[in-house]
Amino acid sequence: MATKKNLKKSNIIEEDEISLIDIIRVLWRWRYFIISFIGIVTLISIIYVTFKPVYYKSQSIIKLASFNDTLIENQNEVNDYLHSLICAEEAKKFFGEKTFYKMLNLDIDAMKKYLKSDELWSKLEFNRIILERMRSMISFEKNYYLIVKSRNPIYSINLNKFLAEQIVKRQNNLLNKKLENYKERYKAIFFRTILSKEKFVIPSLTFQNACIILSADKNVIEKISKKRTIVIISFCISIFIAIFLAFILEFFRNLDWKQVINL
Fold first, then answer.
1. With helix as H, strand as E and coil as C, how does the chain read?
2. pLDDT level of residue 94 (50, 70, 90 thresholds)
3. Which of 92, 145, 220, 246 could be stapled to 30 by a disulfide with Cβ–Cβ 3.0 to 4.6 Å?
4. Which is more confident, 10 or 60?
């Protein structure tokens, strides 16, 4: 019984050794293909990242306005404003048309073609391009952080500062409207209680104005560069793909084509 078990174990070990040797043989046979494939993919990734533009990210910290411990607008509503045509028009008026398009990394000559055309689809396409670019470059995150990305660090900072001021201005206007409505509502209740000779209890009221805690020009601007990461990832993926293709080629190499044709 013991000898049978030992024979079985030795057979398993031998099969494992043979299969491992076979794998090494396949990889050695197709070594030039594997090295060439990895080299070509890595070279393509290096060329890609060389011509890939670098972006700069500016960040400012904003405290949103609140009324009775509830935010006047939440993060999604602020983002809706930032990605709207209203916000785009305000920025265009402040910076000028050409500068605003440069901030969004848009081709001015190409944009002029849309502006010259009187067709409705052309104007809609023009607005779609602007809004799409604003969504990719501008975001308000975690109810505090305004982030602007641009190829030019100065444009990134200036646009961030302007948008931060616009958010604060808009927030405080909404808060003032809410306070006015609150006053009017309780004035009516106050006069009603005087006439009915009932007790008037003033409810507790808390509110907080919006403000910029940290401006973009006082914060560190971050250079967004993932070039090294892209090259490393493409190199690693190319190794697995090259090995996989090598085994497929080996399979076709060992295939009995006469038998396949006869079938």
1. CHHHHHHHHHHHHHHHHHHHHHHHHHHHHCHHHHHHHHHHHHHHHHHHHHHCCCEEEEEEEEECCEECCEECCCHHHHHHHHCCHHHHHHHHHHHCHHHHHHHCCCCHHHHHHHHHCCCHHHHHHHHHHHHHHHHHHEEEECCCEEEEEECCHHHHHHHHHHHHHHHHHHHHHHHHHHHHHHHHHHHHHHHHHHHHCCCCCCCCCCEECCEEEECHHHCCCEEECCHHHHHHHHHHHHHHHHHHHHHHHHHHHHCCHHHHHHC
2. very high
3. 246
4. 60
Instruction: Say if residues 74 and 143 touch (Cβ distance below 8 Å).
Output: yes
pLDDT one-digit tens code per residue, 35-87:
999 999 999 999 988 888 888 999 999 999 998 888 999 999 999 999 999 99
Q: Which residues lie below 8 Å from residue 131, measured CB to CB, with a gap of 6+?
A: 83, 84, 85, 88
Which CB contacts under 8 angstroms, 24+ apart, belong to 74-83?
74/143, 75/140, 75/141, 75/142, 75/143, 78/140, 78/167, 79/139, 79/140, 81/167, 81/170, 82/134, 82/138, 82/139, 82/140, 82/163, 82/167, 83/131, 83/134, 83/135, 83/138
Is the pLDDT at 142 greater than 80, yes or no?
yes
Query: Taking 80 as the threshold, does the pLDDT of residue 19 lie above it?
Result: no
